[in-house]
Amino acid sequence: MKVTNILFGLGLLSILEESVAYPGMSNTISEIKQRTLPKRQTLLQRRVVRPRQVETAEDPEAPEEPGVLIGDIKDGGTTPIGKTVARILLETESGQSLEAGYQIPGPPNSTECKEDTCCIWAHISAELTAAFRGPSGRCNKWARAAVRLGFHDAGTWSQALADNGQDFGGADGSIALSADEIQRPENNGLQGIVNKTQVWQKKFGVGMGDLIQFSAQHAVVTCPLGPRIRTFVGRKDSSKAAVDGLLPGVNDSADKLIKLFEDKTISPHDLVALLGAHTTSEQFFVDTEQKGAPQDGTPGVWDTLFYNQTLGTGPLPKEVFRFPSDIVLSKDPRTADEWLSFSGPEGQNHWNEDYSYSYIRLSMLGVNNINNLTECTKVLPLPRPYFQDAGQLLVNE
Ligand SMILES: *[C@@H]1O[C@H](CO)[C@@H](O)[C@H](O)[C@H]1NC(C)=O
Ligand SMILES: *[C@@H]1O[C@H](CO)[C@@H](O)[C@H](O)[C@H]1NC(C)=O
Ligand SMILES: *[C@@H]1O[C@H](CO)[C@@H](O)[C@H](O)[C@H]1NC(C)=O
Ligand SMILES: *[C@@H]1O[C@H](CO)[C@@H](O)[C@H](O)[C@H]1NC(C)=O
Ligand SMILES: *[C@@H]1O[C@H](CO)[C@@H](O)[C@H](O)[C@H]1NC(C)=O
């Protein structure tokens, strides 16, 4: 029996079972609520009280500027969904959600399913959970690859190019739809997940840009401790190859990395949060003599150990391979405070919150119909904020 059919048969039951299985869930709900509200208020107050020009990048005490709006919601959005995404990008509404209880209306090709945008995504979710979760309950190599694919599709967008009439690239599926992008050296190692994603796309008949971003967010919540990031679908696909040279390199300087991401409307603070995705990554091509070396000692768990280990602290097994680009940002005065804060006590909640905001922004780059998207977070598996032996080293699936 196919996994999708099993899940369809169980329907709501399996979703309820999951929530009962994690007794810490009610804590997480209140933590999410408690953590986001005060931050929202402070951000808004700061924006009102403090004029923009006093907040220079050189002033380490300057509060983080809330991000700018992008795409077709630069005016704050014209539809309820556009307004919601705008509030998330401004960090006045949470980027995580525990909304659950979705009842799948029918099998993938049924009329009932076709009438409900999120239905097909619930079926996809069942398939991805099976594909991304390893035997120990940690997330596996396909989850890691899906996270990386999400970055490498969405990251190929530039505000400066967009302002010059080249508003394409970004989260449009072109990494899998153009013949060109997958050949680029920085995309080496992604062929396997691209192949798999192409199979899923044909099977379920959804957009490639959506599927890549949905998979990247699904992979994160499939990892123990990972946040359940709010997930939107309805992007437009493109088979036009994105402009080359818009993704970060492992040997880039802090200056280059910060500028590269600022040109994607991603602040240094958000960049630090996004780089935490190296919590579950393994490298195969940066140093071919250490193929499979993880960037954090617990590559199957979405924890903050990556931040410690990049600083050279915490339990640091010799197998961990640290990227020079991560090391320079862990030390740069524009990013070091945030780096340390993610590694410290309460770092996990802080990071999950910030990663969610930053990833939603990344997943909307180049998307110019945000007002027309649909939120389908409710079909994702629930997060697992507690995981036995989460700190066990070098278990990768
Ligand atoms: C991906 O698919 C192509 C074409 O079907 C095949 O040539 C290639 O070996 C596959 N790559 C991987 C890594 O699975
Ligand atoms: C839906 O129908 C199409 C066309 O008959 C088929 O190719 C596809 O595999 C079906 N999808 C699922 C998920 O069963
Ligand atoms: C990064 O620098 C190292 C050491 O200089 C070098 O061996 C490696 O090829 C460089 N990698 C890339 C992608 O430029
Ligand atoms: C990581 O470093 C922080 C200090 O930055 C420390 O409080 C924490 O205990 C460290 N975590 C581990 C697992 O060593
Ligand atoms: C959004 O949807 C409306 C109604 O379906 C359509 O008229 C409009 O062109 C869409 N806008 C974009 C940017 O896709």
Automatic annotation (TrEMBL):
Keywords: Calcium, Disulfide bond, Glycoprotein, Heme, Iron, Metal-binding, Oxidoreductase, Peroxidase, Signal. Gene3D superfamilies: 1.10.520.10, Peroxidase, domain 2 (1.10.420.10). The active site is at H152. Its cofactor is heme b; Ca(2+). Its EC number is 1.11.1.-. One of its GO terms (biological process) is cellular response to oxidative stress. One of its GO terms (molecular function) is peroxidase activity. The record marks R148 as: Transition state stabilizer. Residues 1-21 form the signal peptide. Disulfide bonds join C118-C376, C139-C223. Residues 206-397 form the Plant heme peroxidase family profile domain. Heme b binds at H278. Residues 51-74 are annotated as: Disordered. It holds the Pfam family peroxidase. Belongs to the peroxidase family. Ligninase subfamily. This is Peroxidase.
